């Protein structure tokens, strides 16, 4: 593990990001940059001016989805040490706080990186094929949900007004047909991506060999776990997926029913629940 002597906390928003540089001697310097390729290049130039070498600098930021995409991709291309941490962990580690703004948030992130540098997990970009699969799965999910909404609305009209039902069904028939065609195209593209990657194909075949586990669940597991490299044990994965209930008791008075933690991945939890129901329904030995 590298011995870092410079720590940078970055608070990212849509249009810009705030950066606070923390040196071991606790000297803090702050700057703000545009959230663009040009802005990131300006950030790297600023690091050079402050004598913060890429090899000995730890850059910490929160999970912000698409907002951090440009920043993380440019920094990875420059071989920077990036730590993308869950915002809740940073907030809880800061203790009792009053007030906030972008500058203060970047300072807190820098301090978090300094205090917890021994626990750092450097960010590695997922494979391009996994990124493509993740985007296609997300698009497929939205299309399936939209199709279900259309069908539900029509079925409700059937009970209330048959004439309106026929009119609505007539006009949205082509829409549903088009959505079905798009879903099939997405699934075909997913199959192509699986076959093109030997490791991905092997993992996919292994997961789908489990009774009840289908294509979408298998690919979701692979994407969320980055080909099962994110977690060190089955227990950690089960906890992340939300299939492990936790005890909640204190003294003699508090005896709550064990339940899944609210921070579980609800999407995977739902998919695994449906897999279990499917397995029980179609496999008599599992009942």
TrEMBL record:
What's a Gene Ontology MF term here? Answer: transposase activity
Cited PANTHER family: PUTATIVE TRANSPOSASE FOR IS117-RELATED (PTHR33055:SF3), TRANSPOSASE FOR INSERTION SEQUENCE ELEMENT IS1111A (PTHR33055)
Query: Single Gene Ontology BP term?
Result: DNA transposition
Q: Which organism is it from?
A: Flavobacterium columnare
Q: How is this protein named in the record?
A: IS110 family transposase
Q: Where is the signal peptide?
A: none
* Transposase IS110-like N-terminal domain residues: 8-153
Give the top-rank taxon of the lineage listed in the UniProt record for this protein: Bacteria
Stored Pfam families: DEDD_Tnp_IS110, Transposase_20
User: Where's the Transposase IS116/IS110/IS902 C-terminal domain?
Assistant: 206-287
């Amino acid at each position: 593990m590298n011995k870092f002597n410079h720590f940078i906390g970055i608070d990212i928003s849509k249009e810009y990001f705030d950066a606070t540089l923390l040196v071991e001697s606790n000297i803090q310097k702050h700057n703000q940059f545009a959230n663009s390729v040009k802005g990131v290049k300006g950030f790297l130039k600023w690091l050079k001016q402050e004598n913060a070498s890429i090899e000995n600098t730890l850059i910490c930021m929160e999970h912000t989805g698409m907002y951090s995409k440009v920043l993380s991709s440019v920094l990875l291309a420059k071989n920077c040490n990036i730590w993308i941490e869950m915002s809740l962990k940073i907030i809880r580690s800061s203790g009792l706080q009053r007030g906030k703004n972008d500058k203060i948030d970047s300072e807190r992130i820098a301090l978090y990186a300094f205090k917890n540098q021994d626990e750092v997990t450097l960010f590695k970009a997922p494979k391009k094929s996994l990124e493509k699969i993740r985007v296609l799965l997300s698009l497929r999910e939205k299309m399936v949900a939209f199709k279900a909404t259309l069908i539900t609305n029509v079925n409700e009209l059937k009970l209330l007004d048959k004439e309106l039902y026929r009119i609505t069904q007539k006009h949205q028939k082509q829409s549903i047909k088009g959505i079905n065609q798009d879903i099939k195209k997405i699934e075909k593209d997913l199959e192509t991506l699986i076959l093109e990657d030997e490791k991905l194909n092997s993992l996919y075949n292994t997961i789908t060999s489990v009774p009840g586990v289908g294509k979408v669940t298998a690919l979701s597991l692979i994407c969320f776990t980055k080909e099962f490299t994110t977690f060190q044990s089955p227990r950690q994965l089960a906890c992340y997926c939300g299939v492990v209930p936790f005890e909640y008791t204190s003294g003699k008075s508090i005896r709550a029913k064990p339940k899944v933690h609210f921070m579980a991945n609800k999407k995977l939890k739902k998919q695994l629940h449906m897999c279990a129901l499917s397995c029980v329904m179609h496999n008599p030995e599992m009942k």
